[in-house]
Amino acid sequence: MTGRVRRALGLTAFAIAMGILESVVVLYLRELYYPGGFRFPIVRMPDRVAVAEVIREAATIVMLASVAALARRHRADGFFVFGFLFGVWDLVYYAGLRIFLSWPDSFGAWDILFLIPVPWLAPVIYPVVVSLLLIVGFLAHETAEAAGRSISPSRIGWAVAVGGASGVAASFCWRFRDVLDGRVPQGFPAALFWTALATAASPFVRGTLDALAGRRSREAAGPR
């Protein structure tokens, strides 16, 4: 077993465990505040519980980032590792909720994603798509590096990716007032989400295509 495979297995095991832990915590919260099933408008939790939930969310991100920092081979590698951890954690979290609570009942079900700095909310399909892309990005990165290539963008590419990611975050925060005002969310800004996601992914797609082109060029040249 190579070092890359061992690392990937260790990261996967950690992310799965984190996802299960997250879903169990939410199981407790929903049994307390939504015994009849999760729904909007949300139930207002006591302030100390709400503060504790924000702290828990922040601690979870710190844990994922810390493992990524420990496992990384270089700076850009840490980004892909964090994305992989986040993606697996998120997918396992939703799988756990489905097993424990039979929720979500569809990919169109609205969920609260984060509370920092304002509530993030969206139909479940959108964070699932993001998580899948993060996992695919890590796999492409690992494949390229194993072949001696890199899909890491240039500085301009990173700026484009950050701008696109900011747009994705904005789409998730678009209806935060609905949560604060006790309303049922309506009308997710899908056009903003897909445009921003495509923008964020484009530098990595280009890097992947360039890496594949370089590999094919070397194979066509043959041994020297």
Keyword list:
72% helix; mainly alpha; 4% strand; globular; 224 residues; two-stranded antiparallel sheet; 7 helices; single chain
State the gist of this model.
This protein has helices at residues 3-33, 47-71, 75-101, 125-146, 155-173, 176-180, 190-221; strands at 110-114, 120-123.
Describe this structure in words.
- The protein is mostly helical and 224 residues long.
- It has one domain.
- It has 7 helices and 2 strands, in the order αααββαααα.
- The chain has helices at residues 3-33, 47-71, 75-101, 125-146, 155-173, 176-180, 190-221, and strands at 110-114, 120-123.
- It has a two-stranded antiparallel ribbon with strand order 1-2.
- Helix 3 runs antiparallel to helix 4.
- The longest helix is centred in the C-terminal third of the chain and has 32 residues, at 190-221.
- The protein is globular and about 55 Å long.
- The two termini are 29 Å apart.
- Residues 216-221 have low confidence and may be disordered.
Number of extended strands: 2
Q: From the alpha carbons, calculate the radius of gyration and give it in angstroms.
A: 19 Å
Task: Estimate the mean pLDDT confidence.
Answer: 91
Q: What count of domains describes the coordinates?
A: 1
* Span of the ends, CA to CA: 29 Å
* Helical coverage, percent range: over 70%
Structural class: mainly alpha
Task: Bin the strand percentage.
Answer: under 5%
For the sheet with most strands, the description reads:
2 strands, antiparallel
What is the H/E order? HHHEEHHHH
